[in-house]
Write a structure and sequence with these properties.
By secondary structure, the protein is α/β, with parallel strands linked by helices. It is about 25% helix and about 15% strand.
């Protein structure tokens, strides 16, 4: 049995049999870029010129309002959905998953082909022979979490807001196709580009891309809460996210120059963000339509 068709005991017990992998020549590189916390209307207000070369942006809905569970869904192959009415969920999943035939340049890939692992990196690496890589900006996605499964490399970046640093590490060996998921944090609070200071905005535990101080106040017994932003600050923060998208648009110019022919790129977000609507800020334990509305666009390079 080849290296790319390993079976574990659970698969053998289930009676699962992997189909032969298609020839590598039929498969293309596949990249998912996740603009962390970027909501749909701020993406559209930024009016990116480069990113939209991939295709027309759609408003879709995230399956979750927080980073980790949303990325788990993405890595199951469940892209943000269109919230269709009048159809069974199972039918939507099947039709939506057919898009992977176009993304990968493969044939007859169906949702059931992920069984029993139900995890895209496993399937791409062990069944189709892809090299699989993850580069993430947010510590809640670090390599010690369950998300690090089926990846040849999984790296938490040194900075939480530097997509350019990820591009420095991209490689595309010609012997096998490559899959990358890039979680970039420029659009995450405090919506800062790598060349600017973040000191103007408070360091909010669990929100500022870090969580190591999340328990400080409860463990010390101090009665303290971070002061909530006022309306003016909310407006300024929303504008910062818009500007972050504009910054990233220039980074995508470099990405498009780096990737080889026969590369498919999907751009989306893990969830949206609240800037004062309904009295909310941020995302997570929030139930509001804007925290689920995300941009979605994709297309092939050359």
């Amino acid at each position: 049995m080849s290296l790319f068709r390993r079976k574990n005991k659970a698969e053998a017990a289930s009676g699962f049999h992997e189909r032969p992998a298609p020839p590598f020549d039929d498969l293309g590189n596949f990249i998912i870029v996740v603009l962390d916390s970027c909501r749909f209307d701020t993406f559209m207000q930024a009016a990116p010129k480069v990113i939209t070369r991939l295709g027309a942006p759609e408003q879709r809905y995230s399956y979750a309002s927080w980073t980790a569970p949303s990325h788990y869904n993405l890595l199951m192959g469940l892209m943000p959905h269109t919230s269709p009415a009048g159809v069974f969920a199972s039918e939507y999943y099947k039709k939506d998953f057919v898009a992977f035939n176009r993304r990968l340049g493969a044939r007859e890939i169906e949702f059931k082909s992920l069984v029993p692992r139900l995890y895209l990196p496993d399937y791409l690496r062990d069944t189709l022979g892809y090299r699989t890589h993850a580069m993430v900006s947010l510590p809640v996605l670090n390599s010690f979490t369950p998300l690090n499964r089926g990846f040849d490399t999984f790296r938490l970046m040194d900075k939480h807001n530097d997509m350019n640093a990820m591009l420095d590490l991209l490689t595309f060996p010609s012997d096998r196709p490559s899959f990358y998921i890039l979680n970039t944090g420029e659009t995450h609070y405090p919506y800062a580009t790598p060349d600017e200071s973040e000191n103007e905005w408070p360091r909010i535990s669990g929100v500022h891309g870090v969580f190591k101080h999340l328990d400080d106040h409860s463990l010390s017994g101090a009665d303290h809460e971070d002061r909530f932003f006022d309306e003016t600050q909310m407006g300024a923060l929303r504008e910062r996210q818009v500007n972050a998208v504009r910054w990233l648009d220039s980074v995508f110019e470099r990405l498009f120059d780096i990737v080889p022919k026969n590369t498919w790129i999907t751009v989306t977000s893990d969830h949206g963000e609240l800037f004062g609507e309904g009295g909310y800020f941020g995302h997570g334990p929030v139930f509001h339509e804007k925290v689920f509305q995300v941009p979605f666009l994709e297309g092939g390079i050359r």
